[in-house]
Write a structure and sequence with these properties.
Keywords: DNA-binding, Transcription, Transcription regulation. The chain is mostly helical. It contains nine helices and no strands. The longest helix has 27 residues, at about 110-135. About 20% of the residues are buried.
């Protein structure tokens, strides 16, 4: 029996993640049944769960990817830029509806809440580090603790995600993000 190459295994894993992302976004966590995951990925249950222990492990792998991607942008350009990217390219953020499912699972499943917390810690850490750098270069206000600013930006991010995921108007959100940026900067800049 021929062995499957590492490249092919990585490609299959990527196909599963891409299909599962769409399935979770469309149907939510509970609605993403194994049958729907099979249809969305074009792979059998055995192929899917060869790569991922279970549905939760698959969901968390997607969450990890999203958190890492957001952390990369946040580290370079700031969390507000992540939000601007969401507005500019909503198709790249089809997982937003899944974020609502994450909140529900966090409230009802302590093990999931613990796993999710470890994934979001990276985004918070890079946001905090970037804000500290901005504070050092004099462009970030100093009258509010940096940790409070991280929480503030995270709350704004959650609100933006809820608004986008529920299909509400985004007409005024660019102006809202301008206001958010202005609120954390030093007034004279």
């Amino acid at each position: 029996m021929p062995r499957v190459s590492d490249d092919r295994l990585a490609a299959r894993r990527r196909e599963i993640l891409d299909g599962a992302r769409h399935c979770f976004a469309e149907h939510g966590y509970d609605g993403a049944t194994v049958k729907r995951l099979e249809e969305a990925t074009g792979m059998s249950r055995g192929a899917i769960f060869h790569h991922f222990r279970d549905k939760e492990a698959l969901f968390l792998a997607l969450a990890r990817e999203d958190a890492e991607r957001m952390a990369d942008v946040a580290a370079q350009e700031g969390l507000v830029q992540v939000m601007r990217d969401m507005l500019a390219r909503p198709k790249d953020f089809d997982w937003l509806g899944t974020r609502l499912e994450i909140v529900r699972k966090i409230r009802s499943d302590p093990a999931f809440a613990e796993a999710w917390a470890s994934h979001t810690a990276d985004l918070e850490a890079v946001t905090l580090a970037r804000l500290e750098r901005k504070r050092e270069d004099g462009s970030l206000r100093k009258d509010v603790d940096t940790e409070v600013l991280v929480t503030y930006l995270d709350v704004v991010l959650d609100g933006l995600i809820s608004r986008l995921a529920t299909g509400q108007s985004t007409d005024d959100l660019h102006a809202v993000l301008d206001l958010v940026e202005d609120s954390v900067r030093v007034a004279d800049r």
